[in-house]
Amino acid sequence: xxxxxxxxxxxxxxxxxxxxxxxxxxxxxxxxxxxxxxxxxxxxxxxxxxxxxxxxxxxxxxxxxxxxxxxxxxxxxxxxxxxxxxxxxxxxxxxxxxxxxxxxxxxxxxxxxxxxxxxxxxxxxxxxxxxxxxxxxxxxxxxxxxxxxxxxxxxxxxxxxxxxxxxxxxxxxxxxxxxxxxxxxxxxxxxxxxxxxxxxxxxxxxxxxxxxxxxxxxxxxxxxxxxxxxxxxxxxxxxxxxxxxx
Length: 246
Known about the structure:
The structure is a single chain. This protein is α/β, with parallel strands linked by helices. The protein has one domain: TIM Barrel, CATH 3.20.20. The chain is 38% helix and 28% strand. It contains 11 helices and 12 strands. The protein has helices at residues 32-41, 52-57, 63-72, 87-95, 105-109, 111-121, 149-156, 180-190, 203-212, 225-228, 234-243; strands spanning 2-10, 13-18, 21-29, 47-51, 78-81, 100-103, 125-132, 135-138, 143-148, 164-168, 194-197, 218-223. It has an 8-stranded parallel β-barrel with strand order 1-4-5-6-7-10-11-12, surrounded by 7 helices. Strand 1 and strand 2 form a beta hairpin. The chain is globular, with a radius of gyration of 16 Å. It comes from Candidatus Johnevansia muelleri. It catalyses: 1-(5-phospho-beta-D-ribosyl)-5-[(5-phospho-beta-D-ribosylamino)methylideneamino]imidazole-4-carboxamide = 5-[(5-phospho-1-deoxy-D-ribulos-1-ylimino)methylamino]-1-(5-phospho-beta-D-ribosyl)imidazole-4-carboxamide. The active site is at 8 (proton acceptor), 130 (proton donor).
């Protein structure tokens, strides 16, 4: 299981939102490239980057920052999300050195398009299930859909999807603890490896998630505010995961 630190980029700065609300953010650093370097030195084996402005606009906005990070650290797998709605943007990021492209809104709005993308790009694609009470949210989490997350995953299951991100929006950025029950349910019913996200508070969440790997396929956990505010030490958290015995 990977400890995956999050770098959310808004107006070129590294921030964290509360429940995805763009007007409720904490600015942690004006230089996301410096934050990426800091995480890599601490032992991160994958980075989670989100273009928050892009998620709202429906197109890349902070792509220059993202390209610089991939250029500086070509050996570190990077997953990028936010505003990726067409094939050209997917190809653009992959050509820039990104290893995984995250699709969220477009997976809800255009299922047939995403099926074609999965058939073409395979393991380079991750689908993000951004949920409020089981229903998916879109457009930077500003709108709620009437689609239940697990129903959508069942559609993509047969088209080469290999990994999903499950985010509990109600907990995201709130440091209230992971929704372990929902993560387990989603992993078991969806039948695909899950990256957990939303609300990590401290090392207790890491312990609980590690125990969950005994019965479900959990590939990693995305952590933001808990690392930035010192509740979790990235190096120690990954060391704990590496030494865990199932």
